[in-house]
Amino acid sequence: MPFGLLKYGLSSEYPAQHHFTPAKELKRHYDVVIIGAGGHGTAIAYNLAKYHGITNVAVLEKSYLGGGNTARNTAVIRSNYLTEEGVSFYRESVKLYNNLSNEFNYNVMMESRGQLTLAHSDAAIRSFRWRAEVNQHMGVRSELIDRQAIAEMVPNLNMSEESRFPIMAGLWHADGATARHDAVAWGYAKGACDRGVELHQLTEVEDIEVTKGRVTGVKTNRGHIECGAVVQAVAGASSVVAKKAGIPLPIHCYPLQAMVTQPYKPVLTPHVSSPHVHVYVHQTSRGEFVIGGGSDPYPLYHTRATLDQRESLSAAAMELFPFLSQARMLRQWAGTTDMTPDYSPIMGLSPVENYYLDAGWGTWGFKATPICGVTMAELVATKRVPEIIKPFELERFYRYQQINEAGATAASH
Amino acid sequence: MKLLTCPLNGQRNISEFTYGGEYHPMPDPNTTNPRRWAEHVFFHDNAAGVVTEWWCHTASSFWFLAERNTITDQVIRTFDTSEIFNQRVDFVAPDIGSQS
Prior knowledge:
The complex is a heterodimer. By secondary structure, chain A is an alpha/beta fold. Chain A is built from eleven helices and 18 strands. Chain A starts with a helix and ends in a 31-residue tail after the last helix. The radius of gyration of chain B is 17 Å and the shape is globular. A four-stranded antiparallel beta sheet of chain B has the order 3-4-5-6, with no helix packed on it. A two-stranded antiparallel ribbon of chain B has the order 1-2. Chains A and B meet through loops of A and helix 1 of B.
């Protein structure tokens, strides 16, 4: 309707549909305060509102919605881990991802193009065989494939036996996928706000009030809030926030760097990862090659990009895909990863009553977003720890019961 | 290229060094309990700000300490371990009963 458009253009009012809560004053009391409006925080709020009827919820974000590690990860979704605990947890997450666009009625651009992990040594083949067996037993599609199958699947991969680390075999994971990371946070936030949850951006938590071992409120840069429960979902700042509640965490923060090329025509279908040469590559639906997996060699709370990582990521990517030597780099960035000693998350109860942890998401947080929302919301609503996240409790470190996923993580540290 | 000054070898490219973790005093193995030991091994201060940490010059296997700002990535100073470890430490195995 051209006249409608003209009228709209000349009007002084622009009635726009708000996806999220417009900026407004904080209330004095919320039943639940969620710190961090990334994928995890908004997913928890969404599940609380939609499935548990808890809507007096504030999601506090010191910056803007989905602007932290939700925006900085490389959007890889997979469940081919090594331990039973890890595989069954991420398997549920992949299932939820597959239906997420329907769940929201909001397109998260889920693309199940599979994931291929490369072995360049006998030891890697042994561990892949182990992972494939565990995965298949747990109902996850993983299989060991040989050089010929790899060459057919990824014709432009450098299969030369003369290269520095020749490719010997691969772990093919048909359930591997990517999705648009921003849309995941937006979909959850919209669904939560539609049901009465309040999203407060530019609201930083300065202190957490604990009275007699129980959390009672938070102090923000916009005033004080009383609350019944607090969930922290602040990947990259977990230690700093937990310290305000007096909770020590077994976390070290390392920047993880990635970069992306200009868009090219589609030539690469699956996500290809090589833990040995420290790189993973996939081509987005827009055509850009995402090149990731470069962890800084020492801890840092800074998201600068370095030439060192650019050199090593480029060298590794070109070893796998020589044609990338001609590719032009569009940008390079970093995200702060909360690395735990066993490369598994820290979820569930904390030493402070009604203060719940959703932390230690290292390089595996994005893929866990939906299951995290479901399980953490159930925990907050029922005060019972769901079986599927029980193994990831903070207490495991005091009992020396780590869940070792170091070998199944793409980025090496 | 980022540089780090080794107290023994002088200024070198940081790629020659290995990060060795936060410096924090070890509990006495004879009097500690499993919980405190877990805290010593796994839990970290992970401070955003100036921290004291271990570094090793990989090529010469020389361990030293550094004060570094983890927000700005500025190394404030590096120093020899003798500044902190200025007397001999003897590790005595805890008494776990008589062995025949």
